[in-house]
Amino acid sequence: MGLPTVKSAELEDVEIGLLLTGIQQIYGYDFREYAAASIKRRLAHWLAESEFDTFSQAQSCLLRDPDTFLSLLQGITINVTEMFRDPAFFLALREQVVPFLKTYPFLKIWHAGCATGEEAYSMAILLNEEGLAGRYRLYATDIDEEVLQKAAEGVLPINVMQKFTQNYQKSGGTASFADYYTARYDHAILSASLKKNIVFSQHNLAVDAAFGEMHLILCRNVMIYFKPILKERCLSLFDHSLMPGGFLCLGLKEGMERKKWSERYEEMVPRTRIYRKCYATA
Amino acid sequence: MPRPKFQLIVIGVSSGGMQALKIILGQLPAEFPLPLLVVQHISSDAGDGLARLLDELCEIRVKEADEQDRICAGTAYLAPANYHLLVESDGILALSADPPVSYARPSIDVLFESASAVYSSALIGVVLTGANFDGSQGLKTIKQNGGIAIVQNPADAAAPQMPLAALAATAVDYVAPLDGIVAVLKKLADA
Ligand SMILES: C[S@@+](CC[C@H](N)C(=O)[O-])C[C@H]1O[C@@H](n2cnc3c(N)ncnc32)[C@H](O)[C@@H]1O
Predict the structure, then answer these.
(1) Which of A26, A205, B23, B92 could be a cystine partner for B178, CB 3.0 to 4.6 Å?
(2) Residue B14 a catalytic site member
(3) What is the ipTM of this complex?
């Protein structure tokens, strides 16, 4: 019979498609909504390190054994983050946005996709230095329970602190970064005063509802991994959660180009990806 | 109408890259029929100055790649500092902030492998001057999937290590100095 022979790259696409559908149905994580190129790369990595030769082979085990699935989940989620990541962004935030924030008696700020929390801790430092201590609450959310647990602990490996110190200085920090943590052996324990106004909680941007009335929302290096449809869903979610005149901050290579958004959001400083929501929106 | 044989060129270059890119991109005509994706290793806080400079010098269009850019003929897309550049399945570009691969972000291997997964035998991979071994695995993948591999002649390269590593990793179709590579690309683009 003349059945077609399929090229191995195409075959693998089919296998991955089937696997992701299965994972969605059994575990509820929908990676079909994530940009294919990055997901495929990480899946291939996981497969190469695993005992399986093909995704079809791995599928049976992945769908039946939650521990195997967890190892895959660890392999395909990227949680890398930094304190004061992209220092120029934090400098712009400090100089251009904080003056507006100071006009409110109390601030609500949402860090969507906060990973291990460094961005939220950076924000707490920045706000305290700008005289806003006690006048804000930070809601730091992520889909991944495991990173949230780490985030709540606020303990960092000591070997990253040099880089974070440089970031802090470049971001316009006004104190000594070492004042914000205690070094213990090979760890840096972030000071409790930073933690007390941060609430860490699980939230899935793909399915969960909006948060109320934020003054500032940061979602950086998260939507870059989403397909356009999911990215649009997130932008709508943020739009609903943000008060008029509020600020939305995206990653340095993420934008709001679509007309629907560019009509209602203005980039504060070119190339910082800090957008301000207009007051008069329909 | 038959589809053109080749649909995309990917280029990886490291130290000595600015000079090499000026020569290669600078000699392609404005109506060059293929798009090009370029990873040049640059420091993590570099802006898009390189893309803008090359755009001024070249007849083809040169721009820094943005998330969701649709690949167009006669245009070279440069990976932004600190991001990997990948091809999504439908001729759309994607960026990622995944950790560096072999100390590099952007990584040449990441670009080559993702482009090869989409374009297989319609892809041309080019490894130019550089002082590390990024790109060799990616070039090998391109060959395995039936694409064309081109490597700058190590004797002609400002830094020979990257071309040498590529030559050691896989059999390649062309080894040539920069001017020769331009001629090969023009010929292949018309095929
Ligand atoms: C690369 S980290 C970004 C961390 C931080 N915002 C930064 O810029 O440094 C991406 C985070 O997004 C989270 N994430 C991925 N999909 C998500 C979703 N659907 N809902 C919420 N968070 C998600 C991941 O778990 C990961 O921690």
Answers:
(1) B23
(2) yes
(3) 0.85
